[in-house]
Design brief:
Shape: globular
Low-confidence stretches: none
Radius of gyration: 14 Å
Structural class: alpha/beta
């Protein structure tokens, strides 16, 4: 039997508009449905999933800081902050929780400025290009990592 895990899922700027915002790029599912799918998958994996979305960088930094001692890992779609935020990168490095970066679209098939991620160097992995499935794959990968690579810590 696995010890219970608690994971934080963070959604960055503009992800509150999923389903309405450029559905050809980001898909037709809304954020509430993605969160519901994550909770269902979390139950299958015996994991508690806590979700949060903010358009504000400082709030996301605060939530990452608050994750220390509450959660064993972070799943993050930092949205545009992926490409601009040293603050989010530093917050993830500071708490030192295993983190998986996810993106709905394949950021490497898009505009050049989206090809760089400040998050990737402090994440254990990155999944992009699979729409809402990226979140579920990221959750599965994070749980696998925590249960196989960090057994003594969780």
């Amino acid at each position: 039997m696995f010890r219970p895990l608690s994971l934080l899922v963070l959604h960055g700027p503009n992800l509150n508009l999923l389903g309405q915002r450029e559905p050809g790029i980001y898909g037709s599912l809304g954020l509430a449905e993605i969160n519901r799918q994550l909770e269902v998958e979390g139950k299958k994996l015996a994991v508690e999933v806590s979700t949060m979305q903010s358009n504000h960088e400082g709030i996301l930094v605060d939530v990452i800081h608050d994750a220390l001692g509450k959660h064993q890992g972070i799943l993050i779609n930092a949205g545009a902050y992926t490409h601009t935020s040293v603050a989010l990168r530093d917050a993830i490095a500071a708490v030192n929780l295993p983190t998986v970066e996810v993106h709905l679209s394949n950021i490497y098939r898009r505009e050049e400025f989206r090809h760089h991620s400040y998050i990737a160097p402090v994440a254990i992995g990155q999944i992009s290009g699979f729409g809402a499935q990226s979140y579920l794959l990221g959750l599965q990968a994070l749980v696998y990592y925590l249960r196989t690579k960090c057994e003594d810590k969780v």
